[in-house]
Specification:
CATH topology of the largest domain: Rossmann fold
Largest sheet: 6 strands, parallel
Radius of gyration: 21 Å
Strand content: 15-25%
Number of helices: 12
Helix content: 25-40%
């Protein structure tokens, strides 16, 4: 008898996607012989395909509702796969509506109306993402949560000219939420005073910011726009520590095992979404622009490994 396929829904963003690594590993361990498909979006498709958790990755997970051809195409693909169970880790209004695209007779873990395995804790929105997802999976019968190994996420760093010891800086964040960014001048001051060279990470949109930090702190290495997810994880394994805002790369760095200090302002709540990893500290100041170097250095001292 053929084992029914399993669908996992996780559309984004990067920080949320990283915090689903544990649930991904748990679902795979619970369904070792099943064909497991991830429905996601293009930015995370390659990352998911590298992982050991999925047999297939579909990247058309966010069709425009005003594009009936795309929506109906996703519906046809979902129904033709004949999934036996769906784990909706996005648990948004959009992903809940996909229950009707998949077909109402399919087992469903999530918050969609009529779900066979609902996460019906009325206080679920007050839980950290990691605890909320774990509780959701427990309600669906998953009780083993193996630590997600990330050794598959590796890259050659030989072209970056890295020194033997360095720190990672992540000065970017969502451009729509400027309150999540510690001022770049503070990052520059930190880099200038750092006893070891700093490596600045970011996307192409942060290239100018990263260049200003590097110009203000001689010896700083600017890798903005030059790293993908695999390179970020590989850098995290080599770095002495990381300092970053509440943004996706900071979550990935923390998950990869680097001692990480995550900075929060008033735009997000660390109790709900702080990065998780073996050695993570959170420093919150409202407004974040008022956070000083002394407080940052003191918080870092609490997570740094001994010399």
């Amino acid at each position: 008898m053929t084992t029914p396929a399993i669908l996992v829904i996780r559309l984004g963003a990067l920080g949320d996607f990283v915090q689903s690594f544990g649930p991904f590993a748990a679902i795979r361990a619970h369904h070792p012989g099943a064909r497991i498909v991830l429905l996601t979006t293009p930015p995370f498709a390659d990352l998911a395909r590298r992982s050991p958790w999925f047999d297939e990755v579909w990247s058309e997970g966010r069709p425009a509702w005003h594009d009936p051809r795309a929506v109906l195409g996703l519906r046809r693909r979902l129904r033709s796969a004949r999934f036996g169970r769906v784990y909706d880790l996005q648990t948004s209004g959009r992903s809940s509506r996909y229950r009707w695209l998949v077909g109402l007779g399919v087992e469903w873990s999530g918050v969609a109306r009529g779900a066979s395995h609902p996460h019906d804790n009325p206080h679920r929105d007050a839980l950290h993402t990691v605890e909320r997802q774990r509780e959701q999976l427990e309600a669906a019968g998953i009780t083993a949560f193996p630590a997600p190994a990330l050794d598959w996420l590796a890259a050659d760093l030989g072209g970056f000219g890295l020194p033997p010891e360095f720190a990672l800086l992540v000065p970017g964040a969502s451009p729509q939420r400027p309150g999540k960014r510690w001022p770049e001048a503070r990052f520059a001051d930190f880099a200038a005073a750092s006893p070891i060279p700093c490596v600045v990470l970011g996307g192409k949109a942060e290239a100018a910011m990263a260049a200003q930090i590097a110009d203000a702190a001689p010896g700083t290495i600017n890798l903005a726009g030059r790293t993908g997810f695999a390179e970020i994880a590989a850098l995290a394994r080599r770095a002495r520590f990381a300092l970053g805002n509440d943004t996706g790369p900071t979550h990935l760095i923390a998950a990869a095992g680097c001692p990480t200090l995550a900075l929060f302002g008033g735009d997000s709540d660390p109790a709900l979404c702080a990065p998780r990893g073996p050695s993570v500290a959170v420093l919150r100041h409202v407004p974040l622009s008022g956070l000083g170097l002394d407080a940052v250095n003191a918080a870092l001292a609490g997570i740094l490994p001994p010399d």
